[in-house]
Amino acid sequence: MQIAPSESEHAFRAEVRAFLAEFFTPELRREAGVQSGVFAERELGQRWQRILFEKGWVAPHWPKEYGGTGWSPMQRYIFSEECAKAGAPVLSAQGLGMVGPVLMRYGTQRQKDYFLPRILSGEDYWCQGYSEPQAGSDLASLQCRAERDGDDYVINGTKTWTTHAHYSNWIFLLVRTDVVSGKPQAGITFLLAPMSLAGISVRPIHSVSGEHEVNQVFFDNVRVPVANRVGEEHQGWSIAKYLLEFERGGSYAPRIKSLLEKIYTIAACEQDGYGRPLSEDPVFRLALAEIEVDLLAIDAMERQLVASMTTGQAVGNSIASILKIQGTELYQRVAEFAVQSLGPRGLPDYHRLRRDDAPSIGPDYAQTPVARYLNSRAATIYGGSSEIQRNILAKTWLEL
Amino acid sequence: MNFPLNQDQQLLQNTVRRFISDACGFEQRRQANTQDFNRANWVQFADLGLLAIPFSEEDGGLGGSAIDVAVVMAEIGRGLALEPFFAAIVLAGGILRHGASATQRAALIPDLICGQSIVCFAYAEAASRYNLADVSSTAKKRDGAYVLNGDKLTVYAAPAADWIIVTARTAGERRDEHGITLFRVPSQAAGVSRRDYTAIDGARVSDITFDNVRVTDEDVIGPVDAAMDIVRRVADEATAALCAEALGAMNALNEATIDYVRQRRAFGQVIGKFQVIQHRLVNMRIATEQATALVFDATRVLSEGNAEASRLIAAAKAKIGKESKLVAQGAVQLHGGIGITDELNVGHYMTRLLAIDVTFGDTTHHLRRVAAANDSLRSQPSVHSLRFAGQVRNLGLSS
Q1: Which long-range contacts (CB under 8 A, 24 or more apart) does A314-321 make?
Q2: H or E segment at A171?
Q3: Could you please report the per-residue DSSP string of A50-119?
Q4: What average pLDDT does this structure show over B258-262?
Q5: Over residues B14-35, mean pLDDT
Q6: Three-state secondary structure along B127-166?
Q7: What is the average pLDDT across A153-163?
Q8: Residues of B with CB below 8 A from A382's CB?
Q9: What's the pLDDT at B399?
Q10: Percent of chain B beyond pLDDT 90?
Q11: Is residue B388 scored above 80 in pLDDT?
């Protein structure tokens, strides 16, 4: 199993770096540096997506025939690693990473022809209507109803934690089209809806960090044409499961590495109070080394996964759950360590100053760690909580 | 809080808890759509006698103990109240109690106690991290007055304060214990400028710049060049108080989380029935109970005036740093997504506990103090202990 990069992979990495050097300008880097959320804010994200789109690199995971790059798994890994290292904005995943692949697999030709180009160009901005106030981890118990009425579905209900719904012009959602006693998964359908439809309203949900990323979306007798259904009626749950599998192979190590770089900056600039920069404090260095050991393990697993995908070896289901647990928990630890390293410099609410358009205070490196730490607490909750992931692994491994 | 309290302290706890939840807790602030404390509430604090607790009876106070202070602080922690009891009464008030002359105390304490004026204490500087003796602000004697220059960061209660107490260097090198002097400065004095902003826990704070601010001998608090003993004593009291506040927050988080898992349903049952969730809640409670025992012990020893107190307070703050994270993170995780929304109190407890953690030293800082104290306790005539003796002085432990 070849894990070490080859000659051509070195060349590819150089090509990616050259692209970033040219197009990821200092101005973009500055904007990207103050992002603390899961995805870049819309304006920054759209600008970066446009640049990638023009290069033809906006959808590395898509098949070439739909606008993908035709890269090997290793090249995709190198690309995402270099982007994370440079601090490039993280594009919202709902279009490129979720509804796009769903349409490629389950969509009609008309749906593919219409939506896929607009996802690539960024002309359409998507949000995901999955969770509900009473259905989070237990997504199958969702209640948002869709009643068939002629050529339409009429939707009534609500979705929550809808990331970027306030920016989006389209939403894909799982709705209940049937109630099957004892089998909640059996009556779920996958629909697409324009956010401009009458009856759709969006309520912002503010984080304690001050950020506004997620929303609650309300559907009040919203009429959606049947042509906007993806797949068969009641097939929604299989589609959702497919999406989960498709999301596998996402990497945690690059993002964590880039967070560690920020900690190095903090430690080089912050003094320990006894005449040394924090970076020379042996206790700090040991704690950092501990984190780096765990990061090396995650990185190794992710690269081995890439190698397996390259050679077409079967990949067990458990790796995705292991990485989800370990990757998110390490990300949280690192975010926490950044706050600890910042010390009393972390007390000002920098995000509020930015929101209020007030002049900033303090050094650049102090602006985001606390907001990022607070935001990171959700990482072990969304996308299948750590508890759910451990249940999955227990079922797979223990066969009890 | 499960401190063993006497009857008076029980009464105090009940009174403060009821008052805060009626008038100035998190829910109250949310409903009033305000982010700050209001002076009317502060006067009510005064009317209840709370502001008088730590001051001596001869100064018009109630002569209360560190435990009495802890009772109030725990309720503030539980209620997420923003009233500056800690900043004005415990911290600035502590400097006045331990360092100010009778004249100075008579001039400042009565108005402080009745809620008419607010005093803050500006000590932190950009490069000092947790070293209280790292002071670059200077006070140079010139024409019979002191001229103050320097910048202090993130001073709680400063936006509303009438007086600023500040540490400045009158002699020595940047990190020398000797050469630091305490001054009181009227907040409107010429040369004092402030950048007011909000801290992560919602409190209003200031970065303060002193630009050739003139103060007289009457404004010196305590001995010239030798203020660090006062500062360290007050820092210990303040640290113990913050530990108590943290306990209040931790207890509230445990209770809120138990309530939540009792009614939240998923996978056909109340999620509190799942063993993993129960064990996590139990761990949160164990952490809180253990921290409570240590904080109480440290506070008791402090109230008895025992020199042992410093080491125990360091241990308590180190423990609180660790356990408050365990509780806050557990509470957020078990609440799911709503745990970090602005609407719910859970995330706000997390940010307040974070703020407490980086005030007067985090876990790592206090572990170092405990290690130095241990070495000093063992008194081995070794190279080790000689080196650590220096560190003990630097870390402000009485030995």
Answers
A1: A315/A248, A316/A396, A317/A392, A317/A396, A318/A392, A318/A393, A318/A396, A318/A397, A319/A248, A320/A245, A320/A248, A320/A249, A321/A384, A321/A389, A321/A390, A321/A392, A321/A393, A321/A396
A2: strand A170-176
A3: HHHHHHT-S-TTS-GGGT-----HHHHHHHHHHHHHHTPPPPPHIIIIIIHHHHHHH--HHHHHHHHHHH
A4: 98
A5: 85
A6: CCCCCCCCCCCEEEEECCEEEEEEEEEEEECHHHCCEEEE
A7: 97
A8: 337
A9: 36
A10: 87
A11: no
H/E segment holding residue B44: helix B39-47
Q: Is A24 helix (H, G, I), strand (E, B) or coil?
A: coil
Mean pLDDT (whole number) for A91-101: 93
With a cut of 70, say whether residue A3 has pLDDT above it. Answer: no
Catalytic residue among A31, A247, A280, A292: A247
Q: What is the mean pLDDT of residues B76-92?
A: 97
For residue range A162-183, what is the model confidence (pLDDT) as tens digits?
999 999 999 999 999 999 888 9
What is the distance in angstroms between the Cα of A313 and the nearest Cα belonging to chain B? 35
φ, ψ (nearest 5 deg) of residue B341: -80, 160
Contacts of A128 in chain B (CB under 8 A): none
CA distance B159 to B196: 6
> What is the spatial distance between Cα A289 and Cα B284, in angstroms, rounded to a whole number?
28
Percent of chain A with pLDDT over 70: 98
Active site residue A247: yes
Instruction: Decide: B61 and B52 in contact? Cβ < 8 Å.
Output: yes
A211-228 pLDDT, tens digit per residue, is 999 999 999 999 999 999
Amino acid at residue number B207: D
CB distance A274–B153 less than 8 Å?
Answer: no
Q: Give the pLDDT score at B35.
A: 63
pLDDT of B374 above 90: no
- Greatest distance between any 2 Cα atoms in chain A: 76
- With a CB-CB cutoff of 8 Å, which residues 84-123 of chain A face chain B? none
What does the pLDDT look like over B198-247, one tens digit per residue? 999 999 999 999 999 999 999 999 999 999 999 999 999 999 999 999 99
Residue of A nearest to B133 (CA): A273
| Ranges assigned E (strand) in B124-280 | 138-142, 145-156, 163-169, 180-186, 192-198, 204-215, 220-221, 265-266, 269-270
Residues of B in contact with A342 (CB under 8 A): 358
Structure tokens at B9: 């302290």
Smallest Cβ–Cβ distance between A136 and the set B130, B153, B337 belongs to B337
Residues 6-65 of B with CB under 8 A from A: none
Q: Does B336 touch chain A (CB under 8 A)?
A: yes
Residues contacting residue A341 through CB under 8 Å, at least 6 positions apart: A263, A266, A267, A270, A278, A284, A369
**Residue A180 pairs with which residues in a beta bridge?**
none
DSSP-assigned letters across all residues of A269-298: HSB-SSSSBGGG-HHHHHHHHHHHHHHHHH
Contacts of B75 (CB under 8 A, 6+ apart): B13, B16, B17, B20, B81, B248
Cα–Cα nearest to B347, from B334, B359, B331? B331
Show the tokens assigned to A290. Answer: 């501990």
Residue with tokens 């989070």: A136
The answer to whether residues A116 and A108 touch, using CB atoms and an 8 Å cutoff, is: no
